[in-house]
Structure formats: structure tokens, C-alpha cells
Specification:
mainly alpha, Serine Threonine Protein Phosphatase 5, Tetratricopeptide repeat, two-stranded antiparallel ribbon, 6 strands, globular, SusD/RagB family nutrient-binding outer membrane lipoprotein, signal, SusD-like_2, TPR-like_helical_dom_sf
Length: 469
């Protein structure tokens, strides 16, 4: 499997961005040994290569307060200027749009309907990520290339409606038959189907505070269509043990010998008192004491001695470490919350079943075993309590989502849990990312309209996105 993955990655590196290059009619410009046009499944695979970038960065972990800076603590205190979303549009989304609109699809790479369905699932996932970080963003007029360099900003509410429809369409189009060049599920179309429905279910839960009736309806449609059934269904980006496709953190920690990131005090203090087995994977004991100790987030009072704190565990920064993006445990936490909210039947009994199973599956995902689950679930504060169920579910979801910072940050904004994220130097956790600074110049009218509509003209970190009520 690893050898096959390496071959696919090598092909992607050699041919992908060629799809956007100018065409030359003169044969002298044609290299017969290099592909001149990517196929549909190659474009899909190339878009999947960007999935790791949705999580693998210090900024993502700072937003969720998983990691503290040891070397440059000021760098963790959130970006005052704009944050670019251009790379997502210009890279993975443009590749997927090419598959959906102009690529010549071939049945030699699997059923065409399945190729289109997978492209729609990935398109929905990327746009979900974009709108949850920035709010209203270009959608209906985006990805048109030279036809439209200044697309309007669609409302987040309308984008959610469109993405629900896109995922429902993808589910209905999937038929028997796997696809080629699949670096995520090795062509297994049934796993793609379950992924699409799980994404839809998680999106539906985002509506819990702004439109619970619609959220419940979409949640149940996704559940009925069939969601993940085990960790084998997880959306996982698999890095490889080679320099071209390695884990971002390996390049930082191992290659650069940087001990710049410690686990936060907030995270360690959630795990250590209850003997959570995941702590041994998430980080290492402090070298001076042999005990787990977190560094307060955003500490600005001089540089800390890194030997006194727990740094990232080697399982997190090893060269071929996987990134877990959408997981079975997330789906179970979502079902637990839905039961507690009355979106699905069963009340507290059903909520507890799914909550307990979510923690078990999280341990299995992170440690390879459920051996410590019973002991953990008996701990005060972890054992299911109907009076505090929403807080418990949200907090344990946050623990589970370690190193998938942007998703954890979105769930924190929705639920408010964990309730003890800190405000170093009085700087509160952001409620969104600001738009790229160049949008004010390159897409002035649409940018100004979007900022005025949402935030009263202030494009900063503290305007609330549509579902954050």
C-alpha cells in the first residue's frame, strides 16, 4: 500500500498544475515523457493533497489553544491582519471545479458518476472550511477564472444551503464501482459515501444555535443516508516517510531541531487529573521532572525553559504521521449531542451510549486500544452527567480533535466549551479570520458589501459568523 501511495504521489508531483498552463500547438513544446493534461481522478487526488494544510500549521493549533509557543510566544496571539484564502480557491477548489465542469471524464478510471460525486464531497468539505473561518465568501461566482476576477460574496447561510444540496446530490449519484488514483480511500466508493454524509451531519450540527429546526432536519437526512461506522472510515491524510510528502511538524521538529511548541496548560489540565491515556500520545513528560506539565498559552513573561514543559509527542511529529480530519468519534459525539438536544430519539440514554462510545473510539484512534476507556469513563467530570451533558460532550470533542485546530475552534465558537480558554495580554480568542488584505483592493465593491452586511464595516477578528449566535 505504501509503495502504491508513493507512486501516486510521484505522478501528482510531476503533472498536476499543468492543467492550468497555456496550451501550445507547436509540437516542439510537447514533452512525450511528461503528462500534458491531468485526468479527472488525478485532479481529485491533487486536490486531496491540500487536505493536510487545513490542519497542519501552528496557527490552527493556537486558535484552539492546543499548543503554546516557547520561542516566539507573541506569534501565537492571533493574526491582526488578514489571512489568505486564495490558496484554497486557486489550488484544490479549482482542480475540483475543473473535474465538475470541463474535464473529460473516462470510465477507465471508474464510474463517471462516482468521480463527480467524490469531487462534490471534497468541494463541499473545502468550502465548509472556508466559510466557517471567514464567514461570507465567494461561492456562486467563484472559480470562473478569467470570466470573473471579482466574484460576489455569498452569505454563509446560502452557502450552507448549497453545500447541503451538493452533498445530498453526491450521495444520490454514487453507484457501484471504485475510482482510480484515490490517495484517501484507495478507491473505496462506499467510504466516500459515508464520508459525505458524515460531513453533512457535522455541518447540520453547526446550526444548533441559529436554525435548530433546519439543523435537525439535515442531521437526520444525513444519518438516514448512512454515516461512518468505524475508524476505518475516517478521513485521514497519510503522510509518507519521504521528504516530498512528509508531515509538516517533522520538518520543523526533527529537521530543524525546533522545540518551539509545548502542550498548553489548558489541555494538560484536562487530561492529567483523569489519567487520560491520550496524554501519552499527545505529548511527552517534562524532561526535568518526568511529569506532564502544560505551558500557559501566550506566555509573554520571558522565554520559558522548554525542559520544564511537555512538548509534542513523537507520534504527532514523526515523518509519516497521519492527520485525522473527519472521524468516527466526531460522528458519535455529534449523535450524543443530537440525542441530548432532542434531534434524534433516545434522550439521555442514547446520548450516554454515543458519548461513551465516542470516547472509546477516540482512544482507539489515538492509542490503538480501548483498554483505558472504562477507567476514564468512571472519572468524575468525564462520567456522563445529564445536567452537564452538552458541556461534557463539547469538552471531550475538543480533547479528541487535538491537532485539528480549526475544526476544534469552530466547535468552541458554537458551544463555548471548553469554557476556560485563556486571554493572554487581554487578547480574546478570535471569532473569525479577517479577509485577505488584498481583497479590499482587488474586489473592492464586493468586499465592502460583505464586510458592511456582516460586521458593520469592521473586518476584524471579532465579528461573528452567521451560525455563531
Amino acid at each position: 500500500m505504501k509503495m502504491r501511495m508513493k507512486k501516486i504521489y510521484a505522478v501528482l508531483l510531476s503533472c498536476f498544475m499543468l492543467a492550468s498552463c497555456d496550451k501550445f500547438d507547436d509540437d516542439i513544446n510537447i514533452n512525450p515523457n511528461q503528462p500534458s493534461k491531468a485526468t479527472a481522478t488525478q485532479l481529485i487526488a491533487n486536490s486531496a493533497l491540500s487536505l493536510s494544510s487545513l490542519s497542519a500549521s501552528p496557527a490552527a493549533q493556537f486558535h484552539a489553544q492546543y499548543l503554546s509557543e516557547t520561542q516566539y510566544p507573541g506569534a501565537s496571539l492571533y493574526p491582526d491582519g488578514g489571512t489568505s484564502f486564495y490558496w484554497i480557491y486557486q489550488g484544490p477548489l479549482m482542480n475540483l471545479e475543473t473535474v465538475l465542469t470541463t474535464a473529460k471524464l473516462s470510465t477507465t478510471e471508474g464510474p463517471i458518476s462516482n468521480q463527480l460525486a467524490v469531487a462534490k464531497i471534497l468541494k463541499a468539505y473545502y468550502f465548509w472550511h472556508v466559510t466557517d473561518r471567514w464567514g461570507d465568501v465567494p461561492y456562486s461566482e467563484a472559480l470562473q477564472g478569467v470570466e470573473n476576477f471579482t466574484p460576489k460574496y455569498d452569505t454563509q447561510e446560502s452557502i450552507y444551503t448549497s453545500l447541503f444540496a451538493l452533498l445530498e446530490q453526491a450521495n444520490s449519484e454514487i453507484t457501484a464501482g471504485n475510482i482510480s488514483n484515490d490517495i484517501i480511500y484507495n478507491g473505496d466508493i462506499n467510504k466516500w459515501k459515508r464520508l459525505g454524509n458524515t460531513i453533512r451531519m457535522l455541518m447540520a450540527l453547526r446550526l444548533s444555535e441559529v436554525d435548530p429546526a433546519k439543523g435537525a432536519a439535515e442531521f437526520n437526512k444525513a444519518l438516514e443516508a448512512g454515516i461512518m461506522t468505524s475508524n476505518a472510515d475516517n478521513l485521514v491524510f497519510r503522510h509518507l516517510a519521504d521528504a516530498n510528502n512528509q508531515n509538516y511538524w517533522y520538518g520543523q521538529v526533527s529537521n530543524q531541531n525546533r522545540e518551539w511548541w509545548a502542550l498548553t496548560e489548558t489541555l494538560v489540565n484536562k487530561l492529567k487529573p483523569v489519567n487520560d491515556p491520550r496524554l501519552q500520545v499527545y505529548g511527552t513528560p517534562a524532561r526535568t521532572t518526568g511529569e506532564y506539565r502544560g505551558l500557559p498559552f501566550g506566555t509573554m513573561q520571558g522565554l520559558p525553559n522548554v525542559t520544564n514543559y511537555s512538548l509534542m509527542g513523537p507520534a504527532i511529529w514523526k515523518q509519516d504521521a497521519h492527520i485525522q480530519l473527519v472521524t468516527y468519534a466526531q460522528a458519535l459525539f455529534a449523535k450524543a449531542e443530537a440525542a441530548k438536544r432532542g434531534w434524534i430519539a433516545g434522550g439521555d440514554a442514547e446520548a450516554q451510549i454515543n458519548y461513551n462510545k465516542a470516547i472509546e473510539q477516540s482512544l482507539l484512534q489515538w492509542t490503538g486500544s480501548t483498554a483505558g476507556a472504562s477507567a476514564l469513563l468512571s472519572q468524575e467530570g468525564v462520567a456522563y452527567d445529564p445536567a452537564n451533558a452538552i458541556e461534557q460532550i463539547a469538552t471531550q470533542r475538543w480533547v479528541h480533535l487535538y491537532m485539528h485546530g480549526y475544526e476544534a475552534w469552530a466547535e468552541w465558537r458554537r458551544t463555548g466549551y471548553p469554557a476556560n480558554l485563556v486571554e493572554p495580554d487581554g487578547k480574546a480568542v478570535p471569532l473569525r479570520n479577517s479577509y485577505p488584505a488584498t481583497e479590499a483592493f482587488n474586489n473592492t465593491a464586493n468586499y465592502n458589501e460583505a464586510v458592511q452586511r456582516q460586521f458593520g464595516g469592521q473586518d476584524n477578528l471579532y465579528g461573528r459568523v452567521w451560525w455563531d449566535k
